[in-house]
Each structure stands twice: as structure tokens, then as C-alpha cells.
């Protein structure tokens, strides 16, 4: 009995990197999708990831960087309103309140960089309050 549990745990550990490698391939052009404000294509990507890997946007969000910016920051920088609002709606309040790689939350960064008054910034404030 213990042997099968150990084997199952090892199999899960070994399979995990392959799963994330496949996710990375599926997300390869996500920065272009965000920059082009292509909500329909982003919706397809998100749906495929949810169906294929059972991951939600909040699970993959921290691992994606576009030119050093997170997806929401990148959408703000590129005035990709439809995509930015879509991403915010797909994430939990908790995930939206987490500090990003630079130690700032999305809200703190948006306020410091003049994006909090945009539609994306307003959606962010509505979602987290």
C-alpha cells in the first residue's frame, strides 16, 4: 500500500514539469494577444488552459511576464482595455492584491504610474473593494 502511494507521488512530481512546459507553449504568444487587445483570442487561450490543465488565470498569472511587466500592467501600458478588464474579472480578489515581482501590488503600481484612472484601473478598484 505504501509503495503505491510513493509511486503515485513520484509520478506526479515527474509529470508536473511536462505539464507546465506544455502550458508555456500554449501561452507563447500571450503578450502579443494582450498588446493587440484581442480579448477573443485571450478568452480561447484561457478556456483551453482551464480545460486541458485545470488551471485558472490566477495560477498562471505570476509566471507570465511581457517585457518585464505582468499581464495587467502590460495591458495598462498598451491601453489594452478589453483584455485588462477581462483578466481582472477572471482573477480572485486575493490574487489581485498580491505583491508582484517588484514588491508592489497592481494597485500601488497603477497609482504610482498614473494608470489608476484608466478603465482597467477603475475595474481593478471595483474588483478589490
UniProtKB/TrEMBL annotation:
Top-level taxon of origin: Bacteria
Pfam families referenced in this protein's UniProt entry, alphabetically: DUF3718
Keywords from the named record: Signal
Signal sequence extent: 1-21
InterPro entries assigned to the protein according to its UniProt record, in alphabetical order: DUF3718
Protein name: DUF3718 domain-containing protein
Native source organism of the sequence: Neptunicella marina
